[in-house]
């Protein structure tokens, strides 16, 4: 079965219009493979594109399946674990502000 991929570039310097186009593409396709997106920490008014995507697409949880690879030497063998991190509260929700220059407070 042939699979067609639509590539959408998302990074911290996207305009709001570019981000909106990416969100429309994700909703249209019903699926996306997304890596981490750099966040600009030098502008306190800047909203993280990661947080924006999680909020706009109502992504409640981040699920990571971690396994060891048999041919790669590791300290621990036969690891097979699933991590589930809730995205809508705490540090991952993006509810934070700078109380004083260089001091950031996260709202839980």
UniProtKB/TrEMBL annotation:
Domain Isopropylmalate dehydrogenase-like: 21-99
Gene3D superfamilies named among the record's database cross-references: Isopropylmalate Dehydrogenase
Gene Ontology biological-process annotations: isocitrate metabolic process; tricarboxylic acid cycle
Keywords: Tricarboxylic acid cycle
Superkingdom: Eukaryota
Pfam families: Iso_dh
Cellular component aspect of the GO annotation: mitochondrion
Family: Belongs to the isocitrate and isopropylmalate dehydrogenases family.
Name the record gives this protein: Isopropylmalate dehydrogenase-like domain-containing protein
Organism: Teladorsagia circumcincta
Record lineage: Eukaryota, Metazoa, Ecdysozoa, Nematoda, Chromadorea
């Amino acid at each position: 079965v042939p699979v067609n991929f639509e590539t959408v570039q998302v990074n911290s310097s996207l305009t709001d219009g570019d981000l909106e186009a990416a969100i429309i593409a994700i909703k249209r396709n019903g699926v996306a493979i997304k890596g981490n997106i750099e966040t600009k920490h030098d502008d306190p008014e800047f909203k993280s594109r990661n947080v924006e995507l999680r909020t706009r697409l109502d992504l409640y949880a981040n699920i990571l399946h971690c396994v060891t690879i048999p041919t790669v030497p590791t300290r621990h063998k036969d690891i097979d674990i699933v991590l589930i991190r809730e995205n809508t509260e705490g540090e991952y929700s993006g509810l934070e502000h700078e109380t004083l220059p260089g001091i950031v407070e996260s709202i839980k």
